[in-house]
Amino acid sequence: MANARSAELYDGFKAKLEAVSGECYRVETEEEAGKLIGTILKDKGVQNVALLEGEVSKKGNFAQQLKFMNIDVMSDNFRKVTPDAQAGITQVSYAIAELGTLVQADDDANVDQRLCSTLVPIHVAVIRTEKLLPSLAETMSTIHRLPRIPGFVGFITGPSRTSDIERVLTIGVHGPQQLIVVFVD
């Protein structure tokens, strides 16, 4: 695994995410990520997944690995398939260590990304460890230094939670009931 600084950032992110009931893992390769995700989903009884292919999932051949584990993979027509998908896998742009928060940043308001991360009961977010930043301020600065400011920026901190109904905490009302984050070195 990488240097002491990235280990410190990862540990901070993991502690914050787990404090809000998220799950966090770190692997060295894309292939390890695919195997880990398949094992986690299989253990949770997932039989199908909406996979929005990203650079990591393509390189790790997630689709084939999941199919090998008898998990049906749906990788297009997300408006139709995500309402019935048991999990969604996406690659996110950044992670913020101080908050345990993920950041989706896209040039366009990528509807497929949002469907696969919010309409499913389990969201699996994959991210390169090098995209783990220490603070919200540094993340915003990084986004503002991009050649073009993204048309969509979304923040994800743990599974969906609300206390709207009689001030009783409820998980999964406005989004996924579970959030699993896999960092890939």
UniProtKB/TrEMBL annotation:
It comes from the Bacteria. Transmembrane segments: none annotated. InterPro entries: FTHF_cligase-like_sf (IPR024185), LUD_dom (IPR003741), NagB/RpiA_transferase-like (IPR037171). Residues 12-184 form the LUD domain. It holds the Pfam family LUD_dom. Gene3D superfamilies: NagB/RpiA/CoA transferase-like. This is Lactate utilization protein C. It comes from Desulfosporosinus acididurans.
